[in-house]
Structures are given as C-alpha cells and as structure tokens.
Amino acid sequence: MNKIKVISALLAALFILNINSDAQEGEPGGQLWYVWEAMVKPSMNDKYMEMSAKIVDHCKQHDFPYTFHVWASPVFHYLWYYPIDDVKDTEMINRAWMGMASNMDPEIVAAFFGSIDRYEERVLFDRFDLGYVPQNPRIEPAESGFVFRQVFHVFPGKNRELEEIFKEYNVLLKNRDFPERYDCATGILGYENPSYILFNYGKDAGDFWTNYEKVAAILGEDLNSFNLRISRLIRKSEAEMLWYVQPFSYQRDNL
C-alpha cells in the first residue's frame, strides 16, 4: 500500500506537463500509451507471476476501469501497456490502483512489489502515419503473440529526416503489397528523446524469425539501403524480444 502511494506521488510529479494526443502540434492521429515497466528479481519471478495472476483476478472481480496489456521478455522484464487519451490519465490510473489496493490482501501487494527490483514509467505516442498496416495482412493483430521491439535514439535535429525515411519506406511496402504490419511510436516521457519505438510482430518467436528471411528476400537491397540511411541518424539503439502474457492482461471496453 505504501509503495502504491509512492508510485502515485512520483507519477503526479512526472506527468505534471499537460501533454496529450491532441496537443502534438502538427502531428497526425495516433494513440497514447502509458507504459509501466517492471524489472523483476530473477529469483522471485515465480512469486511475481503468482501475484500478478491474483491481481488480475482481483481486477475482474472488482471491475477495474482500465485496460492493460502485459508483455514480457526472457530477462524478467515486464511491460504493462495502458491505452490513454491524455497524459493526465496516468494519475487516474494510479488512483484506481490505490482504490483496488485498499480492498486487496496487503500480503499480495507486498509480495508483488517485493519481487520487483526496480520499475520505470514512460509515455509513448503510437504514430499512425509512421507505422504500416497492410491491406492483406499475413497475421491479424489478435494473432500477434510475439513482438520484436526496437528503440531508436536519434541525433538531435534528425527526427524529421528519420520520419521522412519511414514514410518513404511505407510507400515501398504498400507498392510491394507487403503483408507484415509494424507500429512506430515516438517517445513522449521517460525516453532519451528524440526516440522512436518500432514494434514488429509474429504469431510467436519461431514464426517471426522464420518469416524474417522471407521478408529480406521480398525487399532485397531496398531493405539494406533503408537500414543504412536510418543507421546514420541513430546515436544508439536497443532491441528486445517480448511475448504477450494473456493471463496477466486485462481487457476493458475503453480499448
């Protein structure tokens, strides 16, 4: 309970800026996401999963008002994605969690946070104009159980140039009737900005990597050319494999 109060206080300080999807001046439509990332102690991963399952059951029983989707990496990194309309919604989410904790077994709350080494909060903006949605997708979004996530930290002043490359790349994909979807988001808070987060999907890890060779064959030298142009604008990058954890996720009607 005390740790939840601490999280709420941190979020109130972190998200005092009034940033929302409508306030992205000059930017097209998209979806804001609040991301709560937990780095779990390896020796306590089983405890974390046990408590997560109990927390989700509690959400279902008490009608928690916010959707969250949980993805996990092999290195005990768990990412909770909440769709939001405004950065200020993060405060409402944490107030809702405080309300849930007030009628939850305190041992569950203590064990959950006791299994976590550290956590981070971020906000990203899924840019609909920078991602690519094929007309004839190989897999539907509901089938995507795996994502290869990349974070590109761009040299200052080079973000617009990178965006133009993404848009040019998407024209190529459309002309080739490319069947693979990807999403591209910009970092809003909690990232070393300017930053771009790319999400490439597969049914599972085997499906993704098996299909990767086919992707390279379809795009040929064009893919290498785009990768080279992009690499010149990036000062550093990160990559991570994530699996969707359905038992720890919770779906509401808000998205």
CATH fold-type name of the largest domain: Alpha-Beta Plaits
Tell me the name of the CATH class of the largest domain: Alpha Beta
The major β-sheet equals: 8 strands, antiparallel, barrel
Task: Determine the strand fraction and express it as a percent band.
Answer: 25-35%
Give the strand order of the largest sheet, numbering strands 1, 2, ... along the chain. Answer: 1-3-2-8-5-7-6-4
Secondary structure category = alpha+beta
Number of helices: 7
Q: Give the termini distance in whole angstroms.
A: 28 Å
CATH-defined architecture of the largest domain: 2-Layer Sandwich
Model regions low in confidence, pLDDT < 50 over at least 5 residues: 1-24
| SSE topology string | HEHEEHHEEHEEHHE
Radius of gyration: 19 Å
Which descriptors would you attach to this protein?
255 residues, alpha+beta, Alpha-Beta Plaits, 2 domains, eight-stranded antiparallel β-barrel, 38% helix, disordered N terminus
